[in-house]
## 1
Amino acid sequence: MKIDIITLFPDFFNGFKEHSIIGRAIKNGKLELVTHNLRNQAKDNYGSVDDHPYGGGPGMVLRFDILLNALNEVKAKLKSESPSSYKVILMTPQGQVYKQTIAQKLAREENLILICGHYEGFDERIRDYVDMEISIGDYVLTGGELAAMVITDSIARLLPGVLGDDTSSHEESHSPSTSSGSARLLEYPQYTRPLEYDAKKVPEILTGGNHAKIDEWRKEQSIERTKMRRPDMISDKNI
Ligand code: 6GU
């Protein structure tokens, strides 16, 4: 999978690209992550990429020509320019609210192109050139970069071979349960050594060696936890 990110702040992604699971996925060739500086599209000596909004109002707006040229440059460098081989995603608080099922769909694409907005926004006309608009939640960020990292991270960990253990991305919170296509449960509680510390003990069932019982306990814990913490995620038909 290749992810191209169009941004005014490519340096934001430096730490993200270098460390931990994402860093390793890039080194191992499972993920290619390329940032493109929108500033390189500027036609004047000042490097300006934004301008005042027509009709007046506060703030600056990212220019349509700058955004479109950046997008076309990225597309031209793809291995295949066939529209079926990539998806263009605009990062905006006005987009569809991101969730795990979207991550799972996007993880099947060959190429993603993420466009990060900044300042007050971008010229409306760029919307006609994107396949999808994504928001990562109901709050406003200063720019799309953090959102682009959230999306990249959530997709990268679903790519084959990126997590050490292939099952670890399946069992956890927010993944579809295997028994029902639509159920989403939070993950059960996990424990490791020491067995007892500060008078707090690990539940006995986990050390008894009865794996059927352990599975049953974990499922119950998942359901209880989801009911308590995220009743919006659950309905009786899902269990
Ligand atoms: Cl994708 N961009 C911005 N600027 N703010 C957001 C967002 C995106 N998602 C949630 N808030």
## 2
Amino acid sequence: MAHTLQAIRGMNDILPTDTPLWAGIETIMRNLLNRYGYQEMRVPLLESTELFKRSIGEVTDIVEKEMYTFNDRNGDSLTLRPEATAGFVRAGIQHGLLHNQTQRLWCMGPMFRYEKPQKGRSRQFHQLNVEAFGLTGPDIDAEMIGLTARLWRELGLTGVHLQLNSLGSAESRSAYRDHLIHYFEKHYEQLDADSRNRLYRNPLRILDSKNPQMAELIAAAPLLIDHIDAASASHFEDLRARLDQVGIPYTLNPRLVRGLDYYNRTVFEWVGDHLGAQNTFCGGGRYDGLVAHLGGRSTPGIGFAIGLERLVLIAAASGLDKLSAHSPQAYLIMVGSRAEQQGMALAERLRDQLPRLRLTINCGGGSLKNQFKRADRSGAHYALVLGDDELASGKIGVKPLRHTEPQHALAEAALVDLLRQIST
Ligand code: HAM
């Protein structure tokens, strides 16, 4: 017997019972971004492998272990995007959107990382990615964080917290790098294989090791925030004052370094109480050097990404039911081929007149009893009935399904009035 085909491990189907929550959240996000003046830009799922190596960094978990990389038929190395920032910068340079301009952009879609699947972690996952280019000051940092805070409020999320840090400039980071190497050299025996491998290549990445046996050693390591340059420190102070002013609480987390190499200055993450081990559901920061690093003219950037799977988990745990599935308001039952023909036309007239009406028509025939069962299962409030009697009288049968009123017959105009009342 042939085996049943299954989805690839870590690549999840999002079933119709869940899509209303996803779609509801997506609508709220799109509206909010529109209100803040952000524009949508869509970039490809596939990019050259080189792009991700150069932007995310060669010595990172993503590039070393997690990318879906393959050669295409032409022998070119391509990678399914593990994140969207690199693609945005590539597209921005390619289309001349960045130099001497201000851009506020977003995209939504799937990302791919070969990680170990667990709650809140999959191999295909979805992000809302938001980026701003051409702005150096802390005002845009505050705007971005404010936008996320408003989004959680509008979604009614509970148990979410902001963590903040500054990574300083590239130069101050390189001085810090030396301190870090010195510190970890002194404790070389305690380093795991990954960390030994990274010690001289990218010691900062040791700090986001997920190995619990490394936790104590990492906790005692020198802090980056103690080594940042004066300009970055004042940028950070200004950002904090702005957050205080608009009343967005945060925790300073000097251990927050993010897992990608392109960041400088402000970095932030939102963590959720409802999530368990994978508790970061939104993360981002500044990347003022990335555009120049990828060959464009120097342009500052800042952005963040929200992990939608994790956001949906928090939304569900916060009791977000107002976005739940919408059943049809009416289900049209048609008995006989003449009724089916006339019913289709009736349904189209109702849809013309009542653009908000959710109407399902019965397809696939069936007895009256059978169709009533389907109408009931659909969750509709009313069954509309077209059979021989109704065709003869020129009226439509109306049977409330959620209380015990008897069926009655209405002329089409009266039916439109009734449905108008329930479909606003
Ligand atoms: P990231 O921290 O790698 O940042 O990912 C952002 C978010 O994507 C995470 O906080 C998490 O919610 C979600 N995420 C990541 N990996 C997975 C996974 N395997 N399964 C489910 N969710 C996941 C970035 O990607 C940066 N590009 C963000 C950014 C934009 N920075 C500046 N601009």
